Amino acid sequence: MEDKLLIWKFNRGNRDVLRRIYEKYKDDLVTLAAAFLVDVASAEDTVHDVFVSFIKSAEKFRLTGSLKAYLATCVANNARNKNKAGKRYGSIGLDQAGPVASDSNRPEFAAIFGEQLRRVTWALAQIPYEQREVLILHICTGMKFKAIAAQQSVSINTVQGRYRYAVDKLRTLLNSEVKNETGR
Amino acid sequence: MKPADDINESIKKLYLKASARLDKRVHDGISKALAESEKTESAVPQPNIWRTIMKNPITKLAAVAAVIIVVLIGRWPVGPDMTTVAWGEVAKKVEQIKSFIFQHQISVTNVADGTVIQEAETTTYVSSEFGLRQDAYMNGRIIGISYIPLIGTSVTQVMPDMKKYRMVLTSEEYMRKIHYQANPKGMIREFMSFEHTELGRKIIDGVEVEGIEVNDPDFLTDVFESTVGILWVNVKTNLPVRTEIRGITGNGSIETKIVAYDFDWGAEPAPDIFEPNIPDDYTLFEK
């Protein structure tokens, strides 16, 4: 169902349409939250909290952009709060759980992508949260640096700096791991 | 390809599937929130659609279609029934009509120098089966379309000039009043709930009509500081031909004149006219 129609129904008082919104975006949002928090259980808690607060704030909800971008922003805010509060629930780490690549079901790609993504998620976990958030928001949701700056209440230069640091750090981590593995 | 050269692509390929446990938690959470929302809904004061719409100068005109409806919502018939037999027939007649179309002319004038501040026209489609739609025009251009459904509590407004749309959430009670008052039955009762002066007969657009005038300090007092209302009815059909409302605001400095005319009591608007039509490139309007 088209987002505009979902929102239209929601604003007309059809709260049950929230279930359709959840079903449509649940995997994307869990993935996003997991990339922020590098923690599967916390990611699921985040998505749960976002949807519950979504319906509770229904009266005040006025969408100005896309539904997906709105939800992604909610997930980012919630994940940031969880990170600040240090709310970790003794859960399984993303790198431990093993990410699922979109092509990983294909036998010829499974071995390559499975291992490559495991390394990426491990590397993501090593970089500071603020940098990781910028990187994930920019790459996964396509959010512009200007919008991220507004969301994080920092300057656009700071955001661009965080992005560059994140990419450089990831490159360094991934290259070092490759060297370690090939050197073994 | 080195992994470090492929960071973006690798991150984009990250994909997790929501667990069945999360599915259950979210659906349970939605059910719980829905139940709580329904419990508290009746206790929460509903937004005043009139104030919400009229607060913003842009939406004020875009929503000018709602003027007559909301103007009449300010008052609910409470006074003694002053109807004569003829006026009683008018009410009965309009109650039997399922759908019709009529026009409004709305002008806002500076009383001191007669300068016209704003002018607009509307076309209103009324259906007892599908709801209500009002198209507002300024200078011949359509500036706003308001959809007021029979079911639900959300009024949808589309603003073609701005390529925007918005929904205003009201309450069931409020919607019931809108539909009641939008019908000339409600308009007539509103007029008849006050003492009125008979204006006699005259010809409007070739039709012989009989009129009454209401000039009561409490008439539409929730909207205007003072108001004069005139209702003209076709003496042969007993159906309204024209209503005129002149309201004063701004400590006597502003006059708003709202004229309803061109009633087509035999019209049967197509059902899809009442379904909100929001083009894909329109975005939500945020005040």
Percent of residues of chain B in beta strands?
A: 35-45%
Radius of gyration of chain A: 18 Å
Low-confidence stretches of chain A: 87-113
Order of helices and strands of chain A: HHHHHHHHH
Structural class of chain A: mainly alpha
General form of chain B: elongated
Can you describe what's shown?
The complex is a heterodimer of chains A (184) and B (287). Chain A is mainly alpha-helical and 184 residues long. Chain A contains nine helices and no strands. The N and C termini of chain A lie far apart (51 Å). About 15% of the residues of chain A have low confidence. Chain B is 28% helix and 36% strand. In chain B, strands 7-8-9-10-11-1-2-3-4-5-6-12 form a twelve-stranded mixed sheet. In chain B, helix 5 packs across helix 7 and helix 6 packs antiparallel against helix 8. Chain B is elongated. The chains are: A mainly alpha (184), B alpha+beta (287). Chains A and B meet through helix 1, helix 2, helix 3, helix 6 and helix 7 of A and helix 1, helix 2 and strand 12 of B.
